[in-house]
Amino acid sequence: MNTIPITTVSTTADDAWEPFVHDGHHVGEVRWIARETRPHGPLAVGLWRIDPDAGAELPYAVAGSETIHVLEGEAELEQADGTTITLTPGVIVTLPDGFTATWRTRSPFKKLFVVA
């Protein structure tokens, strides 16, 4: 039996979170679990959280394929054609590279994400 050694141990303690800045704007907070540049593309894994008061509506664009597992809260992604994806606790969604939408946060929100 092959075993995979543990290489990262993380925590969700409040002091483990850092501001998430995208295009010069502070957009919630992130807790990085893994980030690396690989020959076949980047890998990013982490937890992200936002309070609706910090930005209830913002543009959302995926660079690489992103899988989201909603841990708490409620949000929605509205695509340009009006199609809406509702994000509530327990929902898992995979978004393709280049996906764009408007993100609307309805309550304090937290997700686990993997971008690859």
Please provide a written account of the structure.
With about 120 residues, the protein is an all-beta fold. Helices cover about 0% and strands about 55% of the residues. It has a single domain (about 15-115), classed as Jelly Rolls (Sandwich), CATH 2.60.120. The strands form two sheets. Strands 1-2-3-10-5-8 form a six-stranded antiparallel β-sheet, with no helix packed on it. A hairpin with a 5-residue loop joins strand 6 (about 75-80) and strand 7 (about 85). The mean pLDDT is about 85. It has no helices and ten strands. The protein has strands spanning about 20, 25-40, 40-50, 55-60, 65-70, 75-80, 85, 90-95, 100-105, 110-115.
Overall outline: globular
- Give the H and E element order: EEEEEEEEEE
Structural class: mainly beta
CATH superfamily name? Jelly Rolls
CATH class category label: Mainly Beta
Trace the largest sheet across and list its strands.
Answer: 1-2-3-10-5-8
What is CATH's topology name? Jelly Rolls
Question: Which architecture name does CATH use?
Answer: Sandwich
Mean pLDDT: 87
Head-to-tail CA distance between termini: 27 Å
Radius of gyration: 15 Å
Sheet bearing the most strands, described? 6 strands, antiparallel
Number of strands: 10
